[in-house]
Structure formats: structure tokens, C-alpha cells
Amino acid sequence: MLQSRRKSKRRCAEMRRAFTLIELLVVIAI
Length: 30
Known about the structure:
The chain is an all-alpha fold and 30 residues long. 93% of the residues lie in helices and 0% in strands.
């Protein structure tokens, strides 16, 4: 459980970064 939590935390950070990149692309597209 603890290990999965750590992994999920790292995954969350990656998802957040990807989301910010997508938002930037959308803003540029507009």
C-alpha cells in the first residue's frame, strides 16, 4: 500500500505536468 502510494504520488506529478503542457498547447492553438 505504501509503495503504491509513493508511485501514485509520482504519477500524479507527471499527470499534472502533462495537463499543464496540454493547457499551454490549447492556449497557443486559440
